[in-house]
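Sanity check

After download, print the first record. It should look like this:
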Amino acid sequence: MPVLVAPSLLSADFAHLAHELRRLEEAGADWAHLDVMDGHFVPNLTFGPPVLRALRPHTTLFFDAHLMIERPERWIEEYRAAGADGITVHAEACVHLHRCLAQIRATGARVGVSLNPATPLSALEESLDSVDLVLLMSVNPGFGGQAFIPQTLSKVRRLREMCTARALSLDIQVDGGINVHNAPALREVGASVLVAGSAVFGAPDLRAAIAALRG
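Expected structure tokens:
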């Protein structure tokens, strides 16, 4: 099955975000990925709930909110109310991960959990039954335009094997340095959602770029 493509608005033109969303929708993107950064958990600042709320009326795309923030439990309801359809939190940022995932579930949003490149899959063993999606970072989070970490391929494969062994059909999302050159290998090892920023927004033809990533 073709993977889903979730272009990251981190690489979009911030002066024309509503227009950029409409371009993505017309080009056939599946989701819009919103990298939420707080300047503490990662060294950058991006989208707050007011930005999502302002953008929500301009598209029907699934809003995939990736909360790269400390103490995400303080903001889950805010991002859901602002229009997030899926909310992903970092295992590294949650003191009580199970409680945080249950909090997302209670809002009606799709539940995701993310791991940084150096965090082992064992950090998720007790949580896989509680999520719809696992996001594996293929760069150290905080900035767009970084190079893909090749070891991510093995991590995706091992996670897919864990899911298969437990009869779980959750999505495996990969984010960071993804382009047309490494997308085929990611699809082959079991990734089902690819987040791409510059590979989409930096391409002359958005539709062709999204189709190439999807395979």
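If your output differs, re-run the checksum step. Summary of this record's structure: Residues 4-214 form a domain with the TIM Barrel fold (CATH 3.20.20.70).
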